[in-house]
Amino acid sequence: MASTESKTVHSAALTYFSMISLLTLCPPFVILLWYTMVHADGSIIQTFDYLRQHGLQGFVDIWPRPTVMAWKIIACYAAFEAALQLLLPGKRVEGPISPAGNRPVYKANGMAAYTVTLVTYLSLWWVVLSGSFPLGCLFGIFNPTIVYDHLGEIFSALIFGSLIFCVFLYIKGHLAPSSSDSGSCGNMIIDFYWGMELYPRIGKNFDIKVFTNCRFGMMSWAVLAVTYCIKQYEQNGRVADSMLVNTILMLVYVTKFFWWEAGYWNTMDIAHDRAGFYICWGCLVWVPSIYTSPGMYLVNHPVHLGTQLALFILVAGLLCIYINYDCDRQRQEFRRTNGKCLVWGKAPSKIVASYQTTSGETKTSLLLTSGWWGLSRHFHYVPEISAAFFWTVPALFNHFLPYFYVVFLTVLLLDRAKRDDDRCRSKYGKYWKLYCDKVRYRVVPGIY
Length: 448
Ligand code: NDP
What we know:
- Helices cover 65% and strands 6% of the residues.
- The protein is mostly helical.
- The chain has one domain (12-438).
- The strands form 3 sheets. The protein has a two-stranded antiparallel sheet with strand order 1-2. A two-stranded antiparallel ribbon has the order 3-4.
- The structure holds NADPH dihydro-nicotinamide-adenine-dinucleotide phosphate.
- NADPH dihydro-nicotinamide-adenine-dinucleotide phosphate binds at residues 96, 267-269, 324, 328, 331, 365, 367-368, 373, 380-381, 384, 409, 412, 416, 420, 424, 427.
């Protein structure tokens, strides 16, 4: 029998290092990235020269102050998404058994919320385009390009607002935890950083992590991708094929996410990572700013690819997104049917692994060792990173900055593969070793 599943995170020293870096480097980085994309032609050298000439004061000068308009946009968007999460109908879905033996219940209305959000957003634009301003005033409408025009202020407001939100999570974790999947590790900083509650809720039904990760973070990715496209259209009177490829691939990726949102509730982010600064600040700030950055760059760089190249990149990107989806689907179908399914046309090969929950109960899980999961233990990260490359490459190679997301994602997923391996080793013990003996590579078959 494997040892009791514990909350495996990095060591205290690494947590302090990671937290200090995140707190001190990430907020300025978000602002510098936005400034470089929007005001410095996407050129790191240009921004660097500016900072060399103007020093710290120059940096303070480019940091936009959060304006009333920025707070209004964020508040309306957050309230709209929260209302959709609460009110739209959806199937009742049970999440995986938690380390404390609970089974959280969700309402699967992500696809409906995604559709309503995009249709509403595009309708707002249509109202502006068609000149129906009385109707526009009725809705209190703005042109979506306003979001792009106030992007710096919005990111700035998100940076500070999300920090305050994480303090709220910390206090709630101490005073009013929603379930027994919560608790302090005795260190205030680690509690704040990695989080205290696994499934924090407001009331019985409003799941905070579904809101931060899915309905705010992932949704903003789609909304901003559309915004960048609209901005380029309004600026140039047309949308370049590079922007089209980028937007289509990002939208297909986010659509896939919402299509499979209930599956996401079984992944590390939701089932293992607690609601703290690391995951919540990341979803509220880093996803809207960094994940969308290739599109942000393309607004002012309407690269013309030509039909053939554009189609080639589009098809390659779609294939990667499909493979990534199929990896997740294969694992979840395998678990859902208790191994009674076909994997690549054959009965799956598997390991029956037992473990103990924190309450001492013995449970078993099945580990799939064929199909995508027989190629390497985290093969799904390969198409994930490749897809990100394909929606960035329409920017061609004039500047490095659009590729920052691909580089960041590679580091994030290699670290995540290690974190997940460590966690599974401590959860499944000898069974995980058996899996590692059978499937030797961690991410890239034959290499790593
Ligand atoms: P998953 O949660 O989907 O998979 C890891 C978990 O699956 C393990 O913790 C383990 O959980 C279980 N597991 C591991 N091996 C097996 C196996 N052989 N058979 C059955 N179950 C197994 O991983 P992620 O959350 O990392 O990824 C989910 C999706 O999200 C992927 O598509 C990924 O690419 C994407 N992603 C995207 C990111 C981005 O920033 N763009 C970041 C992270 C992920 P258990 O305890 O249940 O056994």
